[in-house]
Amino acid sequence: MTSSPVIQKIQELTESYVCIYCIESSDGFDEISTLVDELNCSYKEFFAAAKLIDISQAQTLLSAMFHQRLAYSDVIMPIDQARSLAHEFLSNLDEPAKLYSNCFSDDEVSGVGSWIPVTDRTFEALLYCETEKHSILVIAVDED
């Protein structure tokens, strides 16, 4: 997954609004956190703020993140394309995968809702994926 074409596609289609960090480690949150300027929390702090989510919740969250910006809901891509891209990303994860997020989304069109801050930004959405081989952080941050 580290050099996956789907990661490159997401970066291109979201114009790097959504960033994805991937390392070859099954417990690499601390290593990833050093790569992300916006992230200002430790593994322990993130997991105190995050909750374990299922694949369906991750699908909804990613679709919302890919569909529109967090602050003003500017559309990044059509919802059908966002859903397809989220499905493609999640389908390419190594099994088994544990998925954690600091926020939720009830539906893709309404956007990302309530989050527990782990950055200094006004708006944020994070999905952290742990598999047997990789640690992957999907992050979108925004300001109003």
Written overview of the protein:
With 144 residues, the chain is an alpha+beta fold. Helix content is 33%, strand content 24%. The strands form two sheets. The protein has a five-stranded antiparallel beta sheet with strand order 1-7-6-3-2. A two-stranded antiparallel ribbon has the order 4-5. Helix 4 packs across helix 5 (79-91). The termini are far apart.
Key structural traits:
33% helix; 24% strand; single chain; two-stranded antiparallel sheet; five-stranded antiparallel β-sheet; 5 helices; alpha+beta
Count of DSSP H/I helices:
5
- Judged by helices, strands and strand pairing, the structural class is alpha+beta
Indicate the low-confidence ranges by residue numbers.
none
| Termini Cα gap | 33 Å
Helix amount, in percent?
25-40%
Main sheet attributes: strand count, strand direction, barrel closure: 5 strands, antiparallel
As a whole number of angstroms, the C-alpha radius of gyration is: 14 Å
DSSP, total strands: 7
Strand order of the largest sheet: 1-7-6-3-2
Overall spatial form: globular
User: How big a fraction of the residues is strand?
Assistant: 15-25%
The SSE string, one letter per element, is HEHHEHHEEEEE
- Mean pLDDT level: 90
